[in-house]
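Ticket #4471: structure export looks truncated?
Reporter: QA, pipeline team
Priority: medium

Steps to reproduce: submit the single chain below to the structure queue and open the exported record.
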Amino acid sequence: MSNSPRLFNFSGKTLDLSESHVMGILNITPDSFSDGGELMSENGEVYFSKILKRVEIIIKTGAAILDIGGESTRPGAKEVSSQEEINRVMPVVEAISGNFDVIISIDTSNPELINLCQKSGVGLINDVRALTRKGALEAAAESGLPVCLMHMQGAPDNMQDAPKYNNVVEEVTVFLEDRVKACNAAGIGNDRILVDPGFGFGKTLEHNLELLSRLADLQRLELPVLIGISRKKMIGLVTGRREKDRLTGSIAATVLGVMNGARIVRTHDVAESVDALKVCNEILKIS
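Actual output as written to the record:
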């Protein structure tokens, strides 16, 4: 990849996407697959002191972006109500934006929450449903915020039932192309769009491995690519490791993704991913 600057504006904060950066995960949920319940109880209590300590560590260890989610999208997860998601996320956003200088991403498909993000210090809307939920595309366009469009076959509660593709790479790419066109028609320019192939979202192990090996094919979209592969089931199926023990496999997959074009890596393991990306970025400068 060329080492010429490609500055991406996250609502006032910029990153040079000629090299790769880490997005740290902050799940304000009781049931996310790897870290659910660490920052929020089953009865809805948000642990603010733990959250602020976690955020401080994430930033100090090198994350450029903090991705905050209030709805679990693990396989089989049920949707939460719009108001419940807002109640989880917005107080945390306000606490973080008032105390830390970091790009804040909101992992949401909720148009009401997107509407609230515009004046809350948020820099990115990261939507696993690619702004297909009713009202989400219009809310994102109105917000003026950048968006990340992810591919998912089905919905979280059924996406892993029996995913099928004739050509997974081509079908994922075409879906993302179509969503980019929808965004353009709504007034969201390409300078505000990232894309994510959606590892683990309606895909078998074979589909995920094919996507990772051919991630460079997404470069035809001419848009920055974000990947979320950290601790996922595909890593467990290959290594035989449980969620908390998938660091080495996750880093290996991350390096492959970055060397094949990913420019933002969403991860639970920030410090280790930052070190891996430093090596990748130096190699990419001379390749």
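Status: closed, not a bug. The export was complete when the record was re-opened. Leaving a note from the reviewer for reference: The longest strand covers residues 21-27.
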